[in-house]
Design a protein that fits this description.
Blueprint lengths: L1 E9 L2 E13 L6 E11 L6 E7 L2 E8 L2 E4 L4 H6 L14 H14 L1
Antiparallel strand pairs: 1-2, 1-4, 2-3, 4-5, 5-6
Length: 110
């Protein structure tokens, strides 16, 4: 997992955030495929709703619900490759939403 600064955009709202995602080497030299993006820090005053997450020349739709930011479309790796992400976890408890919940829970402990 790697961390990046990213941007969130919705009609009338634009904000920076911090993002975690898995970065995999691509078949093309110097290019990467990203999977399981998770917004880990965003402005607390952003209203709930649909946003577009922008990072590393990639855009993906996300949904803001409460304290969670959920990927609303295919992961960037699947969108770029035009197929399902082969590296996506298949076991329960290993997905991006559960990772976000663990990060929030850990942040509250400190």
């Amino acid at each position: 997992m790697c961390c990046w600064r990213a941007g969130l955009r919705e009609l009338g709202h634009e904000a920076e955030c911090e993002l975690m995602a898995k970065r995999h080497a691509s078949h093309d030299p110097g290019k990467f495929i990203y999977s399981e993006p998770v917004v880990i820090h965003a402005a607390a005053d952003l209203p709930e709703g649909a946003y577009t997450l922008h990072f590393e020349n990639i855009s993906t739709p996300v949904q803001h619900k409460g304290v969670l930011w959920l990927v609303a479309g295919p992961p960037p790796a699947a969108a770029e490759a035009g197929k399902a992400d082969a590296g996506a976890p298949t076991r329960p408890g290993k997905g991006a939403v559960n990772l976000a919940r663990r990060l929030i829970r850990d942040r509250r402990k400190h």
